[in-house]
Design a protein that fits this description.
single chain; Immunoglobulin-like; 18 strands
Length: 299
C-alpha cells in the first residue's frame, strides 16, 4: 500500500485475496478546512477477474468548537465535603474547589481559572496546582472527553478566614485553542459569615412547678428552685451548651446539645436553701455558654 504524507491519494497493488474473503485498508487523514469532501475510488481489478466496481463516500469536516466550563464549590476542609453554599461563624477557615472541564471537541492548552474576589488571597485560583485522574497525565492541556480520557482537572485552594455577612463569589475558566481564548460561563459559590447569638432567662420559684419570676420573697432558710432557659437567637447551631452560676450548681442539668437555630432548652435546679440573712436581698447572676466549633459564645 502507498500513502504519501501530505498527499491526497492512496494505492494498493500486488495483494492477494482468497475466494469469499475481504480486506480493509484505512488511513488517517487531516482536512485543511471545514468542508464536505466527496471521494470516489478507482475501480478495483485483479488479473484473474478483471476490472471491478468503484466506491464513493463523503467526509464532512466541521469547524472546531472549543468550549470550557467551571464548577466552583466551598468547604471548611481541604478534603471537603464541597457545597455551593455554607453558613459559618466569622473567622472560620474556608477552602475553594475549582473543577475545569473541556466541553468542546478540541484540546485546550493552556487553561486557567480567574476569580476577582479571591485574587491575591490564599484562595486565588491563579496559584492552582491542577490535578487530573488521567494516567499518563494530560496536563497542562485539558483534553477532549473519550471513553478513557477524563476532560476535567481539579484544584483546591485556601484557606481564607470567613468574614461577617453574605459573600457570593464568581469564577471564570479560560482555555486556549489555536491562539484563541474561550471563556466559560461564571461558576459561583457562596458563604455567609453568620453571627451566633445566645440568650439566657433565669427565674426563681418556691416550687419546681412554678410559678416562675425574676424575683421573689422567701423566708429565711426557705427552699427555692431555679429555672434556666437558653435560646439560640443567632444564625448558627451551638454545641457544648452549659450554664455557669457562682451561687447555684448546674451540674445536674442536661441541656439540648447541639442547640439548633431558634431552639430552646431548659433546666430546673432545686430545692436549694435560700442564701442571705434576714431582710436581705441576694442578687444571683448566671451565664450561658455555647460554641460554634470555632468560637465560644456567652450570654
Amino acid at each position: 500500500m502507498s500513502a504519501s504524507a501530505g498527499g491526497n491519494s492512496i494505492g494498493l497493488s500486488g495483494g492477494s485475496l482468497a475466494g469469499g474473503a475481504s480486506c480493509t485498508v484505512s488511513v488517517t487523514v487531516t482536512a485543511a478546512a471545514a468542508n464536505i469532501y466527496a471521494n470516489v475510488s478507482g475501480a478495483v481489478s485483479a488479473t484473474t477477474a478483471g476490472a471491478g466496481n468503484t466506491a464513493s463516500a463523503s467526509l464532512t469536516v466541521t469547524a472546531p468548537h472549543p468550549a470550557i466550563s467551571v464548577l466552583k464549590r466551598v468547604g471548611i476542609s481541604p478534603a471537603g465535603p464541597w457545597v455551593d453554599f455554607v453558613s459559618v461563624a466569622p473567622l472560620t477557615p474556608l477552602y475553594y474547589q475549582f473543577t475545569a472541564e473541556n466541553t468542546g471537541d478540541v484540546a485546550l492548552n493552556p487553561f486557567s481559572v480567574s476569580d476577582p474576589t479571591l485574587a491575591g488571597t490564599a484562595a486565588d485560583p491563579a496559584g492552582c496546582v491542577w490535578q487530573t485522574t488521567n494516567s499518563p497525565s494530560t496536563l497542562p492541556a485539558l483534553p477532549v472527553a473519550t471513553a478513557t480520557i477524563d476532560p476535567t482537572a481539579t484544584c483546591v485552594v485556601g484557606p481564607i478566614s470567613a468574614a461577617s455577612g453574605d459573600h457570593p463569589n464568581t469564577a471564570t475558566a479560560h482555555g486556549t485553542y489555536s491562539g484563541t481564548v474561550v471563556n466559560s460561563n461564571p461558576g459561583s459559590a457562596d458563604y455567609i459569615g453568620a453571627t451566633p447569638g445566645f440568650s439566657l432567662l433565669k427565674q426563681i420559684a418556691t416550687s419546681a412547678g412554678g410559678p416562675w419570676s425574676s424575683a421573689i420573697n422567701v423566708g429565711l432558710g426557705g427552699d427555692v428552685f431555679y429555672k434556666f432557659t437558653l435560646v439560640n437567637t443567632g444564625a448558627l447551631a451551638l454545641s457544648s451548651i452549659s450554664v455557669t452560676d457562682p451561687l447555684v450548681s448546674t451540674a445536674s442539668c442536661t441541656f439540648t446539645d447541639p442547640l439548633l437555630i431558634g431552639g430552646a432548652t431548659t433546666c430546673i435546679v432545686g430545692p436549694i436553701v435560700a442564701s442571705g440573712a434576714a431582710n436581705s436581698t441576694t442578687t444571683n447572676t448566671a451565664t450561658g455558654n455555647g460554641s460554634t466549633g470555632l468560637l465560644t459564645i456567652h450570654t
